[in-house]
Amino acid sequence: MQHSPKPIALAVALALGSLANANAQENAQTLPDVDVIDFRGEQMDSIKYTRPLQETPRIITVLPQDLLEEQNVTSLNEALRNIPGISLQAGEGNPPGGDQLKIRGFNARDDINVNGMRDIGNYFRDPFFIEQLEVVKGPNSAFSGRGSAGGTINFVTKQPLGIDFNRAEVSVGTDNFFRTTLDMNRVLDEDEALRINLMKHSADLPGRNTAEEDRYGVYAAYTWGLNKPTSITADVLHIKTNDIPDAGLPFDRRNGGTGRLPDGINFDNFYGHTNDYKDIEVNQIGLAVQHALASGQVIRNQTRFAQVGNDSITSSPRFVDNGTGVGNNNPASGFAVGNLKPRDQVDTSFRNQTDLLFSLNTGSIQHDMVAGFDFGFYEYENRRRLDTNGPVTSLFNPAEREFTGTLAYGGIHRFETEEMGLYLLDTMKFNEKWELNAGIRYDKVKAFANEEDRQNSTAAGLTPQQAENRSFMREDTETSYSLGLVHKLTPKHALYASYGTAFNISGNFDRNQIQLAGGSMNDRVAGNTFDTPTEKIQAYELGSKMTIGEGLDINAAVFRTETDEGRLPAPAAGGVTTPNVEYYIDGFEVLVAGQVSKAWKLYSGYTYLESEVTSAPTSPFSVGQELGGTPKHSFNIFTTYDITPKITLGGGLQYVDEQTSGVQPDTTGNVKVTIPSYTVVDLYTTYKFTKDVQVRLNLYNVFDERYISQLAEGGGQGIPGEGRQLIATLRYDF
């Protein structure tokens, strides 16, 4: 076995590649009369991916900072509009406490990372502190561990660079929109740098009554050993949110109902209360230590601790009888309430990950390898208050009102996991034409579900939620695989075939396994549901990746994701999750990103999804139904053109086909809900006064399309997409 210096040098370069790319961009900003805008992502930040995107055998989408900035993106939901095949969710039975989405039909609530480390906090993410957003499509447990059945999302944070710069932006717009950000980098010494990002944001929601946003954020990162063999980077993130949340509009999901939004409901209607609130505090601390050995290997250790506090009351819209105020699921009554869904939740996580990059030769085969070990602890705790209805109001003309009642205590619910993983990833180069990617990962996961009564409930004159405390534990060990074959037809065109697996333990956030957001007196932790078998997924993908012209990447793939060990949510609160479900998702995807010409930038994608449940032993009515959150067609495009060196025009379009809520399990319960297709058009222009000063105008939803962008898994509510809005931004580099 002979060591090869060439691939070792490559491994070192890849480990530092993300920093070098970012540094190059900032240097470009200092050149006179040059403003480099690039919509093309070329490399994953994670050192687990040892090849550029165009040589990696799977569909991966990278949203660079330039694209997010030109669109004036202020949330993860807005960023993901650029990526077809991702659907946004409006909770399950309860409104979402944070980002909730599906990738290729699979829940990805737990599959969001920061710098490759799982970020389990229940909050809505603001991207003010990120360099790029990465989305890997398809089962990905060999790289990420549990979950990742549909894929993963990764926030790459802004790291210190070797040059002084400042960038300030101030945005104002309709619907009381105000936002200001500052990105500041300082070189403290020859090999030390500090980067600070600040954000303040406030706005009403366009096209919605009462709901509003208000938050600020601070992110700071310090690096010692900048561009040296040994470097240490420490970072800290703090975000504080104080919103009036929006739970959306009620849907007719009663048995025998239409499964649609009732006729005559105004999209502006707000069914919550003026004293609803969402107070969220996010705190994260990270430390990364990296060392390049003289022999060429690179070792990196990362640690990340995070805590998210979510204290909120969000009121879901529900139909009721007049006078009694009793829920009836029937819009014909003409009356509604806001059903208060309180949450007092703290999410705590700790994760440590060590990676070793090394290269070697076995005969004529060159290996670029990553071996690693990670472990982590995650805890979700909700000191529950029970759901209750607010005052009755008109379904078609709801009054502005406060909730003046009292909330009863529920139990304290906790869900904890202890995780450990070992993995080995190998990129084997046979010659200039052929490469094979192989990965294997072993995971051991312990999960604990606990439910206990509050000590003071009886003393306060309240009925305890349960007569006895409950506690359940399970342990899972799983092995995941990844395999990809790449054939390079030319240096700029490759074909690939890939295979990947994923697994997901029971008890994550299924409402009947561990109740983490409100609920009735009867919603208990259930042992028979918590012990549901592990969900296992596999996928096959065939694709083509090519680069043409000035740097335009065109990727296309067909895929099939399938399982005969899947799960469906329980048909009703307190029920048992449906195990051993067989279903598939077939699809086709095209991504186009980069420069059509020096003046013309393009970012576009199309996804086709077709899903079906083929077997469900305990829920035969489910067979033949499509999965929720899998619109057949979704398409997006965002493009800009430099009319002159000072003037840029552009715009975008997003189309999403109709989609449904979760699978209907039987004929006796609620029906499946459907939301119609929609098309949203945006316009954009920028005027550059100098290389340091420019003004940008973004006009969103030009035709003021009224549509539902987020649908609850249970179909109880849907949240409208934002109405027309105009925002002007002044950017100053100094």
Layout of helices and strands:
Layout: H1 5-30, E1 60-64, H2 65-70, H3 76-79, E2 86-89, E3 101-103, E4 106-107, E5 112-114, E6 117-118, E7 130-137, H4 141-144, E8 151-157, E9 165-173, E10 177-189, E11 192-204, E12 212-224, E13 230-243, E14 249-250, E15 277-292, E16 298-320, E17 335-362, E18 365-385, E19 388-389, E20 393-394, E21 409-429, E22 434-452, E23 470-490, E24 493-504, H5 527-530, E25 535-548, E26 552-568, E27 578-595, E28 600-615, E29 633-642, E30 647-656, E31 659-660, E32 674-675, E33 678-688, E34 693-700, E35 708-711, E36 717-720, E37 725-733
Parallel strand pairs: 2-35, 5-8
Antiparallel strand pairs: 1-7, 2-3, 3-4, 5-6, 7-8, 9-10, 9-37, 10-11, 11-12, 12-13, 13-15, 14-36, 15-16, 16-17, 17-18, 17-19, 17-20, 18-21, 21-22, 22-23, 23-24, 24-25, 25-26, 26-27, 27-28, 28-29, 29-30, 30-33, 31-32, 33-34, 34-37, 35-36
Describe this structure in words.
- The chain is mainly beta and 734 residues long.
- It has a single domain, classed as TonB-dependent receptor, beta-barrel domain (Maltoporin, Chain A).
- The chain is 6% helix and 53% strand.
- The N terminus is likely disordered.
